[in-house]
Design a protein that fits this description.
alpha+beta; 483 residues; globular; 8-stranded antiparallel beta barrel
């Protein structure tokens, strides 16, 4: 310190630097926080286009093919597939992360005279494993080799290498990482039926995951001695104890609603749930007779689609099943007018599955649009058009569990990092991944706050030193220094 510096400034500077020395360990030693227990991943989504140019090739004039979604997968934005229901584990201390996601995409192209396809590739159930600044995306793969037609099916192929340089996953309770650069592995290239080589850039990966503390062991239930069959709650006379109909309407219709033409959206109401690729409408009442193969049920909930030139609400759903065929009807409201009640929208195959563990489940039955349904959609699709498959689940006793709806997790906080991926970025030139969103109360927040405090203290010290020197140079007291 210069001898001419006033003592009061010396004392102030010493105090500031003392505070700075206390704050620095927060920056330099992020492990200084108390050790956190490993957490369970429970819910979340993975958005990935796989490779946009491959999608374009499959659906273009050369392959003249298509893709279909399986297992509750959805589409989102442009050229993105959404996989759901993350489950796995996360270590807040090390940032180690592993989560599997549900759903799949089936690509077909180059149709042959016998109806088969030369290009036939399914990618499903992606799993992401992250350690440090790198990771791997695995997936179940089923592919047909080019030229030979040999079909190979392999579980959890290491499909893509992930670059997480600059991303620190330590200390969070929820994970949200955007635009992770991905490249094809050698194993992935082989499973990809040879369409690309190892090292080729794939689309960047965006993922979220909710985590929760390990569940406490549940106490053993005390034996019941009242003899009333507690917990069984069998439905009388075929009455449905609980149930749901899951239906996504039609994938291309959802894409049309949210796309550049309609520029719209949808909203669920009255108890309906949005699973991304499908909507769930809970059963209100009904009966099912497994021996006769009949069902009559009413459901609650509605979904409203709005956009440019579009206002369509479907609600008050009913299902009837008889003679191996089912019909899904709904109250249809267009442009805010009076609803047209009980309009049959689709028919579907329903062979009358036998109940298992008290549950009747008809899973992803193919569905076709009816004439009344075609009218409800304003003539966008002709009668007989394939609509999204329909899933029915009916519990005949209180212990039967309905299949879970795809879990998309909580909405991630808006990314503030300038390193977040631009949606228009070419996949081959993807930026580095953004850091996980702050949740406002984790060690990650403390580290970020500690950095800010350190910088603020350093800046304050610098300003004070500048003022002192300037005051000394100008020969005026600090108190009257205009700076």
């Amino acid at each position: 310190m210069l001898p001419s510096t006033p003592r009061r400034h010396v004392r102030a500077l010493r105090a500031l630097f003392a505070l700075l020395s206390l704050a620095l360990p927060l920056v330099l030693l992020p492990g200084h926080t108390a050790q956190a227990a490993e957490r369970t991943v429970a819910g979340g989504r993975l958005d990935w286009g796989i490779k946009t140019s491959f999608q374009t090739y499959v659906t273009g004039p050369i392959a003249n093919g298509a893709y279909e979604l399986t297992g509750g997968a959805a589409t989102v934005g442009e050229n993105q597939f959404r996989f759901h229901s993350a489950s796995g584990g996360y270590d807040p201390d090390t940032g180690a992360f592993e989560a599997g996601y549900g759903g799949g995409v089936h690509f077909t192209g180059h149709r042959k005279d016998d109806g088969s396809h030369e290009l036939d590739l399914t990618i499903s159930n992606p799993t992401v494993r992250i350690a440090g600044d790198s990771g791997t995306l695995h997936a179940d793969m089923r592919s047909k080799e080019r030229g030979t037609g040999v079909v190979t099916e392999t579980a959890q192929v290491p499909l893509a290498d992930l670059d997480l340089t600059g991303v620190d996953l330590r200390g969070g309770t929820s994970i949200a990482v955007t635009g992770i650069p991905a490249t094809l592995t050698a194993e992935g290239a082989a499973a990809f039926a040879g369409y690309y080589r190892a090292g080729d850039a794939l689309d960047p990966v965006t993922l979220t995951a909710d985590t929760e503390a390990p569940a406490e062991p549940e106490p053993e239930p005390e034996p019941s001695d009242d003899g009333d069959g507690d917990g069984e709650a069998d439905a009388a006379d075929g009455a449905i104890a609980a149930g749901a109909v899951d239906w996504g309407v039609r994938r291309t219709f959802r894409e049309y609603v949210t796309g550049p033409i309609a520029e719209g959206s949808w909203q669920v109401a009255d108890g309906a749930q949005d699973g991304g690729a499908l909507f769930r409408f809970p059963a209100a009442s009904g009966t099912a007779d497994p021996e006769r193969g009949t069902v009559e049920a009413e459901f609650t909930g509605a979904v409203r689609f709005t956009g440019s030139g579009l206002d369509l609400t479907l609600g008050g759903f009913t299902v009837t099943v008889a003679d191996g065929e089912g019909t899904l009807a709904a109250d249809v409201t267009t442009d805010g007018g009076e609803p047209a009640a009980d309009r049959p929208l689709i028919t579907f195959e329903a062979a009358g599955p036998a109940p298992r563990d008290g549950l009747i489940l008809l899973n992803e039955a193919p569905a076709e649009l009816t004439e009344e349904g075609a009218a409800a959609f304003g003539g966008l699709y002709p009668p007989g058009t394939a609509m999204d498959p329909v899933t029915l689940a009916f519990a005949l006793d209180g212990d039967a569990e309905l299949p879970p709806l795809p879990d998309l997790g909580s909405e991630p906080a808006a990314a503030e990092s300038p390193r977040a991926a631009d949606p228009g970025t070419d996949p081959g030139e993807a930026p580095a991944a953004a850091e996980p969103a702050d949740d406002g109360g984790t060690p990650t927040t403390l580290i970020a706050t500690g950095t800010g405090v350190s910088l603020a203290l350093a800046a304050a010290a610098y300003v004070l030193l500048r003022r002192t020197r300037r005051a000394r140079h100008n020969g005026i007291p600090k108190e009257t220094d205009p700076s």
